[in-house]
Fold this protein.
Amino acid sequence: MAPDLREATGDRRDPATAGGYAEPPDRVGFFTDTSVCIGCKACEVACKEWNAIPEDGLAFTGMSYDNTGQLDANSWRHVAFVEQPRRLGRQETHLAPTGVPAELRRAAGGRTAVSLGMPGSAPPDGHVDAVPGMDFRWLMSSDVCKHCTHAACLDVCPTGSLFRTEFGTVVVQQDICNGCGYCVPACPFGVLDVREGDGRVWKCTLCYDRLSVGQEPACAKSCPTDSIQFGELSELRARAAARVSDLHDAGVDSAQLYGADPYDGVGGAAAFFLLLDEPEVYGLPPDPVVTTRDLPAMWRRTALVAAGLLAALVAVSVPGARR
């Protein structure tokens, strides 16, 4: 079992440094701005194509336009479609980033909307106001492995298949994974999964092979709205804080960051999110904690109990020990 990473890193050290890299590059990650996600699933497709991930089925869940359902061994990216019975309200005109060039805004303002023949959501008679519950909104978010600072999967892996890269990310080496599955329940986000028919664990690598040659991950490269942003983690956190501030100023009070706090239960995530509702709405745990947090204290208590039992056995077995 690997040593507890929280004790190795403390509050100031980079996880790559704690992992043995003398001069690692700046830690990188994802900032996913769900407020501009359009649910196109380009990230899912790009992830599958680049990493040669097997098909996981094209059947819809029946609850939304979601056809993957969750993260697993064959879905390293999962776009959630959360339908809620209310309009976006004031958010409707304030979600787009404000950094659009003035000439582009002027050009867009003069265009006439053209029908693309897509089906509408109005009832057949066209009287929307006469039908209750017609107002709704979609919250869309592309979920992925969080590449935690304090990664429980690293703590429990008995073969060293899971390792920390020089970029601070967490990667599985399939060639030495024995399929024990210890990491699966250890992950507080339910990311890791054993591939059926293969027996080994698979998950997002944050495109480690692309990072090694200076390229950004395939999902971020393919995102048409920059909902998935890749870069140095410190820069992404500053950018995310500014984006939340802009949304609050625009009246979107529900905007919040998830996984960006380096002092949370997993030491902050390298893949964090801007959400427009509570984490539970998106299927995320509200207060994730590294599941191996209490292991050092548990082992110390176990050692004390074992020592006490050994002393008691000696006391009752050694002749004359009770006199």
Remarks:
- The longest helix spans residues 295-317.
- The CA atoms of residues 137 and 295 lie 43 Å apart.
